[in-house]
Amino acid sequence: MDRKRVTIPQLTEWKKNQRKITALTAYDYTFARLLDESGIDVILVGDSAGMVAMGYENTLPVTMDEMIHYTRGVRRGVQQALLVGDMPFMSYHTSAEDTIRNAGRFIQEGGAEAVKMEGGSRVLDKISAVIQAGISVMGHVGLTPQSVHQFGGYRVQGKNYLDARQIKKDGLDLQKAGVFSLVLEGIPMDLAAEITAELEIPTIGIGAGPYCDGQILVTQDMLGMNLDFAPKFVKKYGELGTTIRSAVQDYVDEVQSGGFPDEAHS
Ligand code: KIV
What is the CATH number of domain 8-235? Predict the structure, then answer.
């Protein structure tokens, strides 16, 4: 396995060579270190932290200060992977000046190498401003969770002709603006395949089928830690939720029965 630090130009190279890109989310040092040591290419400090780490109903309440806090922890655990910080709701919606300042915080305070921003044409000017300021941006189109209320829930996007054309146009516009990769979330796999074939930058899919240049999942979902969340696109590579519960129950039983600490652990 290539254990050199992953760079942005390398992702484009991997697309050309048809080498799939692997990405997962992290919100703290311990998980980041485990992912990094396992050879993951890209670690995203996602605003999914709002749901996974904070228990919010959606990602909308997440603040810049919270995201910087998570990114700083993750940074310390990452040696090889490309570290991307996710710009939260309202951090890139008011002015270009605010947007650049917030993106800059991910780099200066969080230690990220790039930021991710949701949306297409509507936020193109803000994305361009960040890129012009010298900060690399990962785009994100399709089912963009920060627009959950506008979508009326977490629904697959791009199912009708006009929506599909708009998503594809957004992807092309974002590439033109200079994003280095594009997350395609919750869109039909044929549309994801079409966009992937058309773009020179790599696409990273989540709930978008197998034809993207890479894949991303929320780590806690793919490890089976979120016991009551099982969407179709998540494959569980572990049952850590069950493992953790069982270990904690053993601990509770042993402390209560006097089995822990025994001599060996005293
Ligand atoms: O916030 C997040 O974790 C994300 C990824 C799942 C793409 O946006």
Answer: 3.20.20.60
